[in-house]
Amino acid sequence: MEVLPAWVPPVGFTLLPHAGGFLGSKVTKKEIPVWYESLQKPSWCPPNWVFAPVWGTLYTSMGYGSYLVWKELGGFSEKSVVPLGLYAGQLALNWAWTPIFFGAHKMGWGLVTLLLTTGMATATTASWYNINKTAAYLMVPYLAWLTMASALNYHIWKDNRNKKQSE
Q1: Helix (H, G, I), strand (E, B) or coil at 134
Q2: How high is the pLDDT of residue 165?
């Protein structure tokens, strides 16, 4: 069996979350100039240019945190099923939000997806805490951003729900 170079797992785990972000950006870029710009947003909505660097930072942090947990537990094992399974679940929900909100223009379902993501990310963080505290702390900015994103999604849905969904 061929052994991977030592740099491959940390780099792979760190970059993995970016895959969904990269694919989601293809949908987002098409929708921002027309559909998203037409929506009523609260005064505290961050400017569009903030989202890409914030998500890049958050994806890097959570990805490296997942590597720390994987490494601490000796790789993929019976002990890693729950902490890495929760992580995979929240990451899948995270990736699903963009096509739901931006692609399908389903603001309400986007909010449901964000709330589920926040719950799974919280469970992930809690499960990581006793394994590797640094990994858990790397999730804290993500949890804060998900809280803001959920509030923003709620306000956008509330203020635009009577708009035609296909706009």
Answers
A1: helix
A2: 53
